[in-house]
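Tutorial handout. Part one gives the primary structure; part two gives the three-dimensional structure as tokens.
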Amino acid sequence: MEASFVLPCKWCTHLQGLLLTASFLTCCHLPATAQITIELVPPHVIEGENVLIRVNNMPENLTTLAWFRGMRIKSPQIGQYTLATNVTVLGPGHSGRETLYSNGSLQIYNVTQEDVGFYSLRIMNKHAQIVSITSIYLNVYSSLWTCEHPSPHAKLTIESVPPSISEGGSVLLLVKNLPQNLLSLFWYKGVIAVKKFELARHIKATNSSVPGPAHTGRETVYNNGSLLLQEVMQNDTGFYTLRTMSTDLKDEVAHVQLFMDTSLSTCYQLSQVKIESLPQKVAIGKSVLLLVHNLPEDFQAFFWYKSAYRRDTYKIAEYSRAMDATIMGSAYSLREFIYNNGSMLIIDVTEDDAGFFMLEILRKDFKIEKAHIQLHVNSFVPNSKDSGSTASLSIESVPPSIAEGESVLLLVHNLPKNLLSLFWYKGVIAEEKSELIQHIIATSSSLPGPAHSGRETVYSNGSLLLQRVMHNDTGFYTLRTMSTDLKDEIAHVQLQLDTSTCCNRLSSDQLIIEPVPWNIAVGKSVLLLVCNVPEDVQTFFWYKSVYRTDIFKIAEYSRAMESTIWGLAHSGREMVYTNGSLLIQNVTEHDTGLYMLEILHKDFKLERAHVQVHVNTPVSWPFVRVTDTTVRVQSSVVFTCFSADPGVSIRWLFNKQSLHLTERMTLSPSKCQLSIDPVRREDAGKYQCEVSNPVSSKSSLPVCLSVMEE
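Part two.
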């Protein structure tokens, strides 16, 4: 709600949505004549934007107007404007970002959280009398408030410090955004993460490092994942790869290129083939030259690939020296130009061009030499545009639970664009014996794995269809993707049979854990209910991981002793019951993930079960912006829903009812934008957006659309 107040008068106590939307104090008894009012344009402002505090119904006989921070005229003055002299005098409350206009309005540029609060306008007449003091409250929303959200998890990156070095110096490959639930990490020399190129590995649980086959004695790994390389030599230049493994079995890979500090880019001490990106970072729509240095004089042919691998499906071009001819490959996009010195020009660069390129050179003695380059593409993604490119891999069970004998689709969302292959596994661990099926993108073919039952079918979009579901099919399924830039990504989904209760109806004696409730809000409690506990149990072990590691042990319960021994991962919020169930109180976002229960039988056999805990933060109040509140028939209008919460579902309301979409209405992929084109009279009314997640939902204040005839 937006209103203003004029002194003197009795104040209303109505203050709706304070700190949830830009709010105003309002006067109770306004006279019939037009009164001075103030409004925010736009009504809701986000950090970094500009806002205009617009004044309406300015009196004609005024001489001076002044803006203050706060609600008292003794508050710090932003500035004072005198109409007769057309002079503005700035006050101590001026930050350098405010502009006063002759119509009384105040513009604030690049707003920050420090700008939150009341702003007061004092107007004086020619008799030096105060005509009115009008105030308004400005609330600045965090920059998290967007129409679209990137992945909530920051991307693993590496920075070379310094960016280039001279021979004999030292360089730190600084790691940023390590996973919070890190289990171990591995450093490799080159772009391929294979054992023979392993420099060192670091195990977080023991805070220890183990050198690998490629370790030279000059590498040191720190506990933050960074790698120090001392006494750098020419052979040390090139790519380095970091692979991280988390407790939830997710792998993440990042690369960095080490450069030698040279005065001329074409001057190298050795004849090693190198590729230089000019510029090093290219903007979308621009051109980039992949400049080749030290191309061997005796080459027969060279080949360019949009990949770190040699595969025909990723071949861009092949150049033959004898024929002086270029043959374009499957990955040629009509934007690449090949030069006879080996270099390649890419014009009209897109986001899909980011990643690894490989140059392969065939010499006269038929020896092959390879060089790699990583292309960095910068893109600007506005807040209110769709940008699903950074969304994380996820799986949805459709339907969420099924009856025995039916079929279920494990629907995959946000597959990598540069996908090479994908693998499905039964269980939470991606190991060969549990592999159901793999799919190779290049050949569009699938190969069954050791765990394939004949009832699984994988589709080209990565989704897995499981037919004639049996009770033994319940549990976790794991999807692992591999991209052309050698990045692995892992996602899990749990398959459930449709039953009214967990423990009372199971016909099998399989150990199962059910979270109650399935989705938990931050600050609430969750019970990890254990079903079908064997009678001959000696001991229960709970781990905040899928591995049996002491550092992730929450608790150990002995039935004989009827006692609990707490582990290193115990937070003080867990309780273990005699039936093996685990209660977690006052849950936080850090409690999200996979848990393992390990049972020790009297015959000393071990049995394990896993469960995934989903923790959600209740959503914040959203708000709606509209391109214009008053539009003409046959024109167009766009509504945008802004929310601070990632991963929410969005629903549009019209006059407090669910909006019925017509052929004139278009929703963006995430539904955060509603476009109407062309507008009709019946579109006039109040529009709201409702955001929700599995534990909460909230609706915005209504925005009223008026429609006028042409």
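Part three, for discussion. The first strand starts at residue 37 and ends at 41. Residues 1-33, 263-269, 380-389 have pLDDT under 50 and may be disordered.
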